[in-house]
Amino acid sequence: MTTGSSEPLYLAGLGTPLGVEHVRVTWLLDRAPFVAERGPIELTWTLATRGPSTADIVDRFGATRRLRAVETGTSWRFDAERGLLHADIPPTSEDEGSLCSVTVSLSRDRPRLLYARTELLRSVGVPGGCAEVRSFSAGTA
């Protein structure tokens, strides 16, 4: 199943239909060069089926700054056989790889993050483009 529309994904065959309207992943940025002066911050991607997918930086005081908003192009695929939901924001001309790719297992009682990657980690100065995932959610609104 692939959709770029504004309709939520309704994933049948998992007991009851599951309406997924977003997947949200937050990385803890504690190794970037700017952390020494500002303290740890977070990068959060919200991949949405309705409206734009967004990437925000939140500092230790709670101030939020929007890094990116992608109006269209987030692709969604559901592998019913494996119970996996894949969301991907493809590269733009200025990015080397996908802006964000996420794989979520929906085969258990609650969604579980299996894979998450974003090029924005490298672009904000995180060495190696790797950071700890602090939190994850998949659901509605």
Radius of gyration: 15 Å
Q: Going across the major beta sheet, what is the strand order? A: 6-5-4-3-11
Fraction in helix: under 10%
Low-confidence stretches: 1-17
- Total number of β-strand segments? 11
Shape: globular
Order of helices and strands: EEEHEEEEEEEHE
- Largest sheet entry: 5 strands, antiparallel
Q: Determine the N-to-C terminus distance.
A: 21 Å
Name its key features.
4-stranded antiparallel beta sheet; 141 residues; 2 helices; 5-stranded antiparallel beta sheet; mainly beta
Describe the secondary-structure layout.
Layout: E1 9-11, E2 18-20, E3 22-29, H1 35-38, E4 41-48, E5 53-58, E6 64-70, E7 75-79, E8 84-89, E9 100-105, E10 112-118, H2 120-123, E11 132-139
Antiparallel strand pairs: 1-2, 3-4, 3-11, 4-5, 5-6, 7-8, 8-9, 9-10
Note down, in words, how this protein is organized:
The chain has 141 residues and is mostly beta strands. It has 2 helices and 11 strands, in the order E-E-E-H-E-E-E-E-E-E-E-H-E. It has helices spanning 35-38, 120-123; strands spanning 9-11, 18-20, 22-29, 41-48, 53-58, 64-70, 75-79, 84-89, 100-105, 112-118, 132-139. The chain has a 5-stranded antiparallel sheet, with no helix packed on it. The chain has a 4-stranded antiparallel sheet with strand order 7-8-9-10. The protein has a two-stranded antiparallel sheet with strand order 1-2. Strand 4 and strand 5 (53-58) form a beta hairpin. The protein starts with 8 loop residues before the first strand and ends with a strand. Mean pLDDT is 77; it is low at 1-17.
Give a short overview.
With 141 residues, the chain is mainly β. It is built from 2 helices and 11 strands, in the order E-E-E-H-E-E-E-E-E-E-E-H-E. The protein is 6% helix and 48% strand.
